Amino acid sequence: GVTVDDGEFAYEVHWELECDGDKELFGGAPFERAIWLSPSSSCKLTMRDDFENGWGGIYWRGIGQILTMDEGLFEQIHTFTVPDALPSSPPPSPPALPLPPSPSPPPRLLPPDVPLPPLLSPSPPPALRFGVTVDDGEFAYEVHWELECDGDKELFGGAPFE
Q1: Which candidate, 92, 94, 89, 49, places its Cα nearest to that of 69?
Q2: What is the mean pLDDT of each run of 10 residues along the chain (162 residues)?
Q3: Strand 42-49 to 13-19 pairing
Q4: Is residue 28 a contact partner of residue 15, using CB atoms and an 8 Å limit?
Q5: Are 80 and 63 in contact (CB under 8 A)?
Q6: How far apart are CA 78 and CA 81, in angstroms?
Q7: Which of 27, 29, 25, 23 is nearest to 10 (CA)?
Q8: Residue 134, class by beta-carbon neighbours within 10 Å (0-12 exposed, 13-18 middle, 19+ buried)?
Q9: Within 13 A of 73's CA, how many CA atoms are on the CB side?
Q10: What is the Cα–Cα distance from 36 to 133, expressed in whole angstroms?
Q11: CB-count burial class (<10 Å; 0-12, 13-18, 19+) for 138
């Protein structure tokens, strides 16, 4: 999941996560939520601080990253790749045992009016599950957000949200 710590100056903290060019999540601090991303997606995390004094011990954690914002900057950008959740290739199969020879029937031809079965398309890569939570706070009524994935609005809400 994605989490952003709480802290004394959490109200100064803002961030936005884009993966493969699509805005996936955005928020402030504190924050916790699941998110689903394809392995090997290219992500850009834009971090902002209203007063340019750094995030003061607040960390953005998720998707294999632990990041914070340096002092003296209004905006800082980090780029990374979503880690692969599955091994790149399956383990080799054990050798097959030889089968006893059997007589094979002669090949059959189908009549021309018998339809062929449809071809199977390759399945998409598996998605990863990440958590997203928006905590309650003094100014929760000011918080509004939406999550779009592949151009579709997946989630939207305010604070608090689980």
Answers
A1: 49
A2: 92 95 93 92 95 92 94 94 64 52 59 59 62 75 68 66 71
A3: antiparallel
A4: yes
A5: yes
A6: 11
A7: 29
A8: buried
A9: 15
A10: 14
A11: exposed
**CA angle (139, 144, 149) in 5-degree steps:** 150
Q: CA-CA distance, 126 to 140, in Å (whole number)?
A: 34
What 3-state DSSP class applies to 162? coil
Q: Residue 107: is the preceding peptide bond cis (ω within 30°)?
A: no
pLDDT at position 20, please? 93
Number of residues that this document lists for the chain = 162
With tokens 């998707």, the residue in question is: 63
The confidence score (pLDDT) of residue 123 equals 58
Beta strands in 20-149 (DSSP E): 22-27, 31-34, 42-49, 60-62, 65-67, 75-81, 131-134, 144-149
